[in-house]
Amino acid sequence: MHLRIDDIAKAWSGHTVLDGVSFDAGENEFVCLLGPSGCGKTTLLRIVAGLTAADAGRVILGGRDISALPARERRMGLVFQAYSLFPDMTAAANVGYPMRLRRDAPAKIAARCSELLERVGLGGLGARFPDELSGGQQQRVALARALATEPAMLLLDEPLSALDPAIRGQLRSEIRLLQRALGIPTIMVTHDQEEALAMADTIVCMNRGRIEQTGSPRDLYERPRSRFVAEFIGRANLLPTAFVRDAIPGFLERRPPGDEATYELCLRPEDVVIENDPRGEAVIEDTVFLGNLARITLAWRGRKLLVEQPGRSALNRGELVSVDALRGAWVCA
Amino acid sequence: MGVRVKRMRTTGMLLLAVPLLFLLVFFLHPLATVLVRSVTDAQGMPTFANYVRLFDDPGLPRAAMRSLVIGVATTLCTVSLGLCLAMALHRSRLPGKALIRTALLLPMLAPSLVLALGLVCLLGRNGLVHRLTGLPTDIYGFWGLLIANTLYGLPQVVIIVSAALARTPARHYDAAESMGATPWRQFLDVTIPRLRFALLAAAFLVFTETLTDFGSAVVVGGSYRVLAVEIYGEVVGQLDFAMGATLGVVLLAPALLSVWLARMARRRQDTGDASPGRTLVPARHPWRDVALGGISLLALLPLVGVVATVAYVSVVKLWPYDRTLTLANYMGGMPDGYGPVATSITMSLLAAGAGVLLVFALSAGLRRAPPFIAKPVQFIASLPAAVPGLVLGLGYVLAFNHGPLSGWLYGSVAIVAACSLFHYHAQAFLTMQTGMRQVPEALDDAVAVSGGSTFHVLRDAVWPFAAPAAISTFFYLFMRSMVTLSGVIFLVTPELGLASVTVMRLDENGFLAQAAAYAMCVVLASALALGAMRLLLHVLKDRRHVA
């Protein structure tokens, strides 16, 4: 089902949280709402779920305006960050809860519960209580519960951020596989850019109640449109126009027209090429060994530059290098 | 806004409205009646004559002075002994901490005057000590009152200070130790600073209670008449309600002030660390343990001795002359038999049951209420903590003995239960609210997106977390109602006796053995209730899976 968010606005006691936000989520699409805390992404998700009322704008699901519909009638499956399982119900009872509220037949509920638990890899653990399950397992139960009533959409509110890094990575790919298999349109809220890059078909990058940029992960990484996106997703070297004119004038060709200060060039660290060169203009200030990666800080024409090289770098502090850039993107400063 | 969101709001408002209505009718209304009565004359015209009369009677300023002196003295004794007991429990390696805890339960199981009663039986002019040794003992007056009040206040101080001690993280002591601080320095620099507000709060609590409690004062005060006794005399003895109301307002002022100060203190209280970390194991330090043990004995021996004396007296044939052991005092000898005990239990069950429902609804209604509603409601619900039982009871007499509701309420168990419930409303409300604060917000939302109503939120999200608080609240209200005296003293009628009041009447008439037997019945009922509560909470803890 296709979801359209149309010009949603929301203020809490005079403070604007969402300021005219619009985007679309297509059939089977996995959309990530990405942004720093306080950017309004969770409020937006709650508005889609029907838990919070918007001040203005519409939520349109499958061509139907559901803005006035209460949460229970929206058919959304919602997974929260943590602590959303009923503590005195077993895993199976938790999963069956929405079906019981709908007064489904007990036999049907039982069958669906075990099917769903099986599906999220918890077959046989249905009799456990939440406090007898690990954090990752609890989130799987929450996921199964969200899917119980065959929702029109799946809404995930930072479902992985309370988990250990190892579990997080595993559950990340499992959620994605499940979502693809079920073909269910999904919106996930996260502040973790790596998670968004890894999972999303489309990222909606938000800042201060507005959408900064919408696009595929690759789009946002390679062609950020604003300084905020460039810095929030991945690492970026942001160079002013005057500096580019002196140091790497080749990039000026593609600069959009505008004042000197309106645009900056974003160079991703791995797109900077450096070579040992006794006559080079840059000097290596620091190298950090990260296993599969070396992170190098340069001083180049009075600016610091961050460079990443795959594998083990042979470069040492104080050595001189020449600098070139493979690709870059002009962003609004 | 969705229809459903609106409907949820409506249900929330309804949850608030009912308990608020009760607070209005059974708390604010009688309170206001006392205030109004103190500034009106017999014709209902405004006047300050009552306050002027306070100074005409030479007995009253003296009684006020005595109340102040006994209040300060009791506070000093109770807080210092309570601090030592709490230290013994939490910062020593003393054996037998369970015994200390058990002994400290005793004052909470009995009406305040039972300690005084025991003291009189032990050290009165005709007390056990005099009988056995021939020493001329006379405990009536200042010292008797001081001891009775101190013993009564001890457990509460220990509870407050213990909570603060438990919140102090062990790593603060580790840090002090690593920097070379001696145990004494650690006590001064780590322990005491984090106890300041707890001590202050405990001091205010004891001061207020001493000032407003009159059970002990009547039994052991003798000719040392304090303000609370004067009010009792004005109202019950001379039926001078205007004067009683005026004295009540005078009593209300320091109580309000001390509760306000305690609130300010709590606001500044360091709530400690979210992660307490390593549990603190007191270092070996024999002299500390000997000192704390000695002080604990000093404080607890009289406590146990006094209660044991009451138990002993209750099985004696004709106190103090014929000390043959007998169960006759329990078997009868009272015109009403166990009627008052049964009434007390009925009344307490009613207060506890209604209290849990009202407080649950109030806390549940407040969960999602906007601040401009939540704040004033919170204030009103906590206000009873600042109103002495004596003043509230007086308000009940003035408000309900006449007027539209009196036909139903006068002399009924319901009115006594209401008085007791609203006297202890603040603590019950606080307990319930603390329980409900543990409900994760995500759980509410999970019910909502699953298609549940407010009823489902309460049943499936709130109740599992609030159940232990509800159990505690129920038994707290039950036990307090069993022993309360100052509030309900004006509400009993010849047909409606209460156990705690009967104890006092029997004592006044010199039937000490029967009074003791009656007191033991109350202690037994309270102890049973306490045991039942612990058992229930334990079972629930085993079964429940609330983190």
UniProtKB/TrEMBL annotation, chain A:
Keywords: ATP-binding, Nucleotide-binding, Transport
A single GO molecular function term of this UniProt record: ATP binding
PROSITE patterns the record matches: ABC_TRANSPORTER_1, ABC_TRANSPORTER_2
Domain ABC transporter: 3-233
Any one Pfam family match given in the protein's UniProt record, by short name: ABC_tran
Recorded superkingdom: Bacteria
Name of the protein this chain belongs to: Iron(III) transport system ATP-binding protein
